[in-house]
Amino acid sequence: MPLIKLSKPKTHDKLNNARQTFFEVMKPYRFILLVMCWMTVLGTFSGIVPIAAAESSPSSKVPFPLLDLEIPDGPLGEAIQFGEDLVMETQTLAKSYVGNGLNCRSCHLGGGTTPNAMPYVGLPGLFPTYRPRSGKVITLQERINGCFKRSLNGKPLPLDSPEMTSIVSYMVWLSQGIPVGAEVEGRGKKPIPPSSTPPNPERGRKLYNAKCSHCHGEEGRGSQNSDGSYVFPPLWGEHSFNIAAGMARLNTAAAFIKHNMPLGQGESLTDKDAYDLASFITTQPRPDFPEKSKDWPKGGKPVDARY
Ligand code: HEC
Ligand code: HEC
Hints:
Blueprint: H1 11-26, H2 30-45, E1 61-62, H3 74-88, H4 90-93, H5 109-112, E2 129-131, E3 136-138, H6 140-149, H7 162-174, E4 183-184, H8 201-211, H9 213-216, E5 223-224, E6 230-232, H10 250-260, H11 271-281
Parallel strand pairs: 1-4
Antiparallel strand pairs: 2-3, 5-6
Helix pairs in contact: 3-7, 8-11, 10-11
The protein binds heme C (2 copies).
């Protein structure tokens, strides 16, 4: 058996050796090297040599894919299908982990297949990642549980549960062909420019009654079937997302509303309408989240957080 040496090399010794040999070898060519350095400096300033950093920037974007995908046969296909069903019908299929009237798809429209509505496409290649809200590096599973605890005002899934494995399988399946580390166009929510005047929640209430209440109900309670299931999800009150959810933040809610609501008529509201609506909705009563005091332990709390 060949021995594999796993211990870390002593970098200092190695570096010093490398330095010595490099300088010895290059001694006769000092002048040429100097000229080459100057050419690079001049070239960079006059735009001849492109700066390589631009290409390796972490925010490389790829177009949102067509998602013309087929679920494979067999056990993996069953897991992917269960994952899709879970994000569409979270209320029914993961009942004991959900504490309100929402499903994942209530916000992740089309089950995470819609740009600018927090799509799931490409996410497995972007986690683990550092999250200022947690103050540490988190996995995709922990991020999913963040939405279970806050957006669904519920409980985290056990990390090794079939539910968690299936949701991750579904996200991986949706992300075929997206390079690791690349973001799709339309990831997250598409921010809208900050409003020049402070948002007006009173105007927001009037807009809500005119444009939203026929689906989301009086007092934001949503509309329910006779069996208690929701046809349209609640926007505030005890059956909505809690105060620590992303959607409880002014800028997040405004961006989501502008691009996606009223359902099927995204982009029909002005930016001011979206801000006024968001300022009204996000200041209505909703469930608390006691763990919120542990958020942003190392600073970086966004200005629009409600606590
Ligand atoms: C009330 C709306 C809402 C519901 C319901 C919801 N989420 Fe989210 N989710 C969000 C928002 C808003 C964000 C983006 C937050 C941010 O980054 O500002 C997000 C982000 C995410 C992310 C990270 C996305 C990224 O681009 O990094 C994942 C993964 C996720 N949610 C999974 C889920 C799952 C799974 C469910 C169901 C168990 C769920 N969410 C339910 C609103 C919601
Ligand atoms: C035609 C019915 C309809 C209208 C009108 C409508 N929505 Fe929605 N809205 C929905 C549905 C349905 C969902 C959930 C999507 C899903 O489950 O596929 C939703 C989801 C939402 C969500 C995220 C989920 C939640 O419960 O918080 C917000 C926020 C929202 N709508 C705000 C608004 C605002 C603001 C308006 C008015 C400008 C509006 N909607 C108008 C049907 C509608």
